[in-house]
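[step 3/7] inverse_fold.run input=structure_tokens len=301
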């Protein structure tokens, strides 16, 4: 009734709103994602609420529906985003592409570039294991990640096995949809406690996204571990500082993805992994973000 698409409205709770209202001692409240931002629309009238947007939702969610998660038509979704961005005192966006699109969707909204980062210092780089293992680590409850996993299992790996029959694929993350009847060379591990161990057992990481927005944390994290990363153009497009062939291997489509994975597993491009690690240290670490915000302490755009 308030114009919030069902896919977001279903996550709003009284407890969330009450928790924000009693936090009066804080200078600002950061609403992490559209559900929290929608829940805090009323609070934003009297308090400084910052909307931390992981991506521009209307850029890719229009028309998506999984079960009851209905995000509405493009006009409804854009109207919703306009409402939360103009209602917030400030909106943080992780890519310059999102900044440009958000300025079109919500003219007059206060926007700030705040890239996604990881705690690089807490991640020790690992060498390729030599086991022929490809790692895809993601939250498979998210539709673009599920579709990417299907692409790997159904289209990419059969092509890769024609080149390298011993290659293996590990799907790590919550809510994987594949059962035990997949090829024995595919490990469907689901949620695990030890990510360091998963990277240490792998030779490369793959981020085969064909849809979605923002800058994937899974890509930044994989680069931080120092392994070679094979990614689609869409997956890497949110990392403006990353260059294909230098910091990661770019491939699009089942055939090129399989060929690129075969090359990496064969030892080609060994220098890409360390250069990817250097990139995230310089651009996508907590320290890099702190330095960026200190340099841009003037009013946001």
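[step 3/7] decode complete -> sequence:
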């Amino acid at each position: 009734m308030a114009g919030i698409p069902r896919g977001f409205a279903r996550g709003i709770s009284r407890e969330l709103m009450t928790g924000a209202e009693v936090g009066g001692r804080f200078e600002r409240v950061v609403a992490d994602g559209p559900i929290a931002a929608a829940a805090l629309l009323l609070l934003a009238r009297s308090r400084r609420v910052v909307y931390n947007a992981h991506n521009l939702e209307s850029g890719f969610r229009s028309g998506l529906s999984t079960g009851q998660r209905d995000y509405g038509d493009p006009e409804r979704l854009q109207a919703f985003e306009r409402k939360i961005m103009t209602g917030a005192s400030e909106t943080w966006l992780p890519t310059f592409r999102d900044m440009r699109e958000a300025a079109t969707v919500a003219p007059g909204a206060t926007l700030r570039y705040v890239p996604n980062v990881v705690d690089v210092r807490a991640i020790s780089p690992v060498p390729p294991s030599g086991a022929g293992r490809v790692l895809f680590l993601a939250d498979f409850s998210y539709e673009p990640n599920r579709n990417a996993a299907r692409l790997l299992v159904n289209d990419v790996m059969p092509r890769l096995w024609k080149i390298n029959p011993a290659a293996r694929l590990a799907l790590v993350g919550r809510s994987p949809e594949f059962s035990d009847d997949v090829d024995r060379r595919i490990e469907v591990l689901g949620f695990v406690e030890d990510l360091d161990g998963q990277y240490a057992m792998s030779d490369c990481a793959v981020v085969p996204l064909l849809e979605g927005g923002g800058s994937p944390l899974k890509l930044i994290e994989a680069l931080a571990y120092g392994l070679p990363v094979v990614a689609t153009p869409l997956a890497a497009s949110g990392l403006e500082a990353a260059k294909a062939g230098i910091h990661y291997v770019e491939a699009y489509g089942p055939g090129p993805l399989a060929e690129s994975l075969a090359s990496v597993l064969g030892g080609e491009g060994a220098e890409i992994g360390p250069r990817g690690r250097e990139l995230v240290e310089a651009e996508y670490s907590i320290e890099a973000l702190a330095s960026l915000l200190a340099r841009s302490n003037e009013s946001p755009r």
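[step 4/7] annotate
The CA atoms of residues 224 and 280 lie 6 Å apart.
The chain has twelve helices and twelve strands.
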